[in-house]
Every structure is written in C-alpha cells, then in structure tokens.
Amino acid sequence: KAVGGLLILAIALNMLELTKIRVGNMLPAVVYAVLLTTLVVRLGWGL
Fold first, then answer.
1. Model confidence pTM above 0.85
2. d(CA 1, CA 36)
3. Nearest to 4 by CA among 25, 26, 37
C-alpha cells in the first residue's frame, strides 16, 4: 500500500508541475514490496 501511495503522490506532483520525479524508476519497488511481504508472511514474521 505504501509503495502505491508514493507512486500516486509522485504522479500527482508531476501533473501539477511542482516537481519532476521519474516514476518509472520507482516501479521495481512494487515488485520488491510484493516479494518481501510474501517472504515475511511465509516465514511467520508478521504481526
């Protein structure tokens, strides 16, 4: 959820022309978040 929220925020800032953030460079973070979450859940480290 956090990674998606940051991507949406970056897109919004780009659309408002307040800053120029390369959103495409952050897309691999979505994959890493899914993999890390899956690993944590399977190992039983979750809350």
1. no
2. 13
3. 26
Helix, coil or strand: residue 40: helix
Angle at 41 between CA 36 and CA 47, to 5 degrees: 110
**What token pair was written down for 20?**
């120029």
Please state the domain extents for the chain.
2-43
pLDDT tens for 1-47 read 788 898 999 999 999 999 999 999 988 988 999 999 999 999 988 76
Reduced 3-state DSSP string for 6-36: HHHHHHHHHHCCCCCCCHHHHCHHHHHHHHH
